[in-house]
């Protein structure tokens, strides 16, 4: 009796552990496991009751699946009264349970797709680009990224949108305040490749820049090493963006005013500049280290690079960029060469 009691207790413990293990998974998966157990049990019972009609357990399971799905091929059916009675019970309850499971599966899929479209689902992959703010600039940026790097995943974060505007393009949308940890963690900033923070130009410059810097601080607090590009409207806030850890700052107002000024003196130059930037592929224009060309003249370095189909157009020394310097300009080891890979 003691041995039987111990075996019974061990069985109950294993069963309890199994139930606990399954309960950790989503309800739809639990229903799936329960449905599979019912079908297998029914197949095993039919095999025991009708061994001639169902010589293997697989044949019994086949009958259970065909019956539960209401297909009813009619290739096999119980012949004895006991087998028919069991089949009646299974049809009344098993088939209904199967129908409920399929309906639950469909509704779960619809709810999941709806939550993805509303930006309620977090992003779980890595090495992606996070773009914060939905506007015309972010829309064009996403379009160019998809055209040039279709393999790069993009996550759009915005608080004003009610649904994903680019769901057909495969863009993952996260709705929420980008200044909050919860929102950026849903965008998986911890494993992001780059974060681009755009400015909301419908607000005042000071208010927008303050929001941008707050978002930048939140991003750097979650992932200090991620490369961040921020758009700043007011020149006075550039130093604060640098203090907050911005890796690259785009002064959109200064950039546009410079293009407008050049257009005043050189009519049509704005279109030409846009065409140049549009035709350049990603990484085609870049900075390269000048350490290997230390103490050489600009003319000599330009000629050596030209032999490798690389066009050098300028030199960055510290924060100063010297465009097309004189041929005798001496390259220093800490310089960076502005080049175009042809």
TrEMBL record:
Molecular function per GO: monoatomic cation transmembrane transporter activity
- Where do the RCK N-terminal domain residues begin and end? 126-251
Pfam families, sorted: Ion_trans_2, TrkA_N
TM spans (from-to): 28-49, 56-73, 85-103
Q: What is its main location?
A: membrane
| Keyword Amino-acid biosynthesis listed | no
Q: Which UniProt keywords apply?
A: Ion channel, Ion transport, Membrane, Transmembrane, Transmembrane helix, Transport
Q: What PROSITE patterns has UniProt attached to this entry?
A: RCK_C (PS51202), RCK_N (PS51201)
Recorded hits in Gene3D superfamilies, A to Z, give:
1.10.287.70, NAD(P)-binding Rossmann-like Domain, Regulator of K+ conductance, C-terminal domain
Q: Where in the cell is it found?
A: Cell membrane
**Mode of membrane association:** Multi-pass membrane protein
Indicate the segments forming the RCK C-terminal domain, all copies.
274-342
Under SUPFAM superfamilies, the record lists: NAD(P)-binding Rossmann-fold domains, TrkA C-terminal domain-like, Voltage-gated potassium channels
Task: Give the record's GO biological process terms.
Answer: potassium ion transport
What InterPro entries does the database record attribute to this sequence?
K_chnl_dom, NAD(P)-bd_dom_sf, RCK_C, RCK_C_sf, RCK_N, Trk_Ktr_HKT_K-transport
Q: Identify the GO cellular component terms for this protein.
A: plasma membrane
Protein name, UniProt field: Potassium channel family protein
């Amino acid at each position: 009796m003691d041995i039987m009691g111990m075996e019974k207790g061990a069985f109950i413990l294993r069963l309890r552990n199994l139930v606990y293990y399954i309960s950790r998974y989503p309800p739809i998966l639990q229903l799936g496991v329960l449905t599979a157990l019912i079908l297998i049990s029914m197949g095993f019972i039919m095999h025991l009751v009708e061994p001639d009609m169902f010589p293997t357990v697989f044949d019994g399971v086949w009958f259970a699946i065909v019956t539960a799905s209401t297909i009813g091929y009619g290739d096999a059916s119980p012949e004895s009264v006991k087998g028919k009675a069991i089949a009646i019970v299974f049809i009344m309850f098993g088939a209904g349970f199967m129908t409920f499971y399929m309906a639950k599966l469909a509704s779960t899929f619809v709810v999941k797709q709806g939550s993805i479209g509303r930006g309620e689902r977090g992003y779980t992959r890595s090495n992606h680009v996070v773009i914060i703010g939905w506007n015309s600039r972010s829309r064009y940026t996403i379009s160019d990224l998809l055209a040039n790097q279709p393999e790069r995943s993009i996550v759009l974060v915005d608080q004003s949108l009610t649904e994903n505007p680019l769901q057909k393009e495969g863009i993952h949308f996260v709705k929420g305040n980008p200044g909050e940890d919860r929102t950026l963690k849903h965008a998986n900033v911890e494993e992001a490749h780059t974060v681009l923070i755009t400015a909301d130009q419908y607000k005042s410059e000071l208010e927008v820049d303050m929001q941008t810097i707050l978002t930048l601080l939140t991003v750097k607090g979650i992932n200090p090493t991620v490369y961040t590009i921020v758009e700043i409207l007011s020149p006075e806030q550039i130093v604060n963006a640098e203090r907050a850890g911005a890796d690259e700052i785009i002064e959109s107002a200064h950039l546009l005013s410079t293009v407008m000024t050049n257009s005043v003196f050189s009519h049509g130059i704005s279109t030409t500049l846009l065409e140049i930037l549009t035709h350049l592929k990603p990484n085609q224009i870049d900075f390269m280290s000048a350490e290997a060309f230390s103490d050489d003249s600009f003319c000599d370095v330009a000629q050596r690079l030209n032999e490798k189909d690389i066009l050098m157009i300028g030199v960055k020394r510290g924060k100063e960029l010297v465009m097309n310097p004189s041929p005798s300009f001496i390259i220093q080891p800490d310089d960076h060469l502005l080049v175009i890979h042809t």
